[in-house]
Amino acid sequence: MLRFKHRLPLLLLGFGAAAAWAVTPEIDPERFLADVKFLASKNLKGRATGSPELEKAAGYIAAQFRGAGLKPIDGKSYFQAFTVTTNARIGPANQFESATGNEASVLKVGEQFIPFNFSSSGKLTGPVVFAGYGITAPEYGYDDFAGIDAKDKIVLILRH
């Protein structure tokens, strides 16, 4: 397991501070769209934790803060260091077994079952519910959890 320290701009604090101190904020829709297009571009490859693309996005956002005249919260940096596990490996004992009634099946690791690389170790038993991609987007009238009782259950979601 590898651990990395990453830098990430204090986005919410920066935006909150800008909103609190701005008298009449002016938002240029074209500039806003340009920022979104850059941060969501294929060149940044989704900005995965631990990736050079995330660092590039963080640097871009920090430069935008600096250019807008925002001051870092601590007076030194727009970045906040934190530790995150990004490269956990599947061990020989990893397995996912499901049972319905008297019928049990074991999913093939790496093909039918892939734990996130930031998953923790442990043994877990309990009822499982399926929640699609795990998306809740009320602004679009969409909720993968609608009609699902996830309380005290393992929620299985699709990735990608």
How many DSSP H or I helices?
3
Count of structural domains? 3
Main β-sheet description: 2 strands, antiparallel
Unreliable sequence segments: 1-13
Question: Could you tell me the radius of gyration in angstroms?
Answer: 21 Å
Overall pLDDT confidence: 81
Measured by DSSP, the beta-strand proportion falls in 15-25%
Which structural category fits the helices and strands? alpha+beta
**Helical percentage:** 10-25%
Order of helices and strands: EHHHEEEEEEE
- Strand order in the sheet with the most strands: 1-2
* Record field, number of beta strands: 8
What's the shape? elongated
Distance between the termini: 23 Å
Write the layout of secondary structure elements.
Layout: E1 3-9, H1 11-21, H2 29-39, H3 52-67, E2 79-85, E3 96-100, E4 103-107, E5 128-130, E6 136-137, E7 142-143, E8 154-156
Parallel strand pairs: 5-8
Antiparallel strand pairs: 1-2, 3-4, 6-7
What does this molecule look like?
This protein has 160 residues and is an alpha+beta fold. It folds into three domains: 3-85, no CATH class; 90-121, no CATH class; 126-160, no CATH class. It is built from three helices and eight strands. It has helices spanning 11-21, 29-39, 52-67, and strands at residues 3-9, 79-85, 96-100, 103-107, 128-130, 136-137, 142-143, 154-156. The strands form four sheets. It has a two-stranded antiparallel ribbon with strand order 1-2. Strand 6 and strand 7 (142-143) form a beta hairpin. The protein is elongated and about 65 Å long. The relative contact order is 0.14. Residues 1-13 have low confidence and may be disordered.
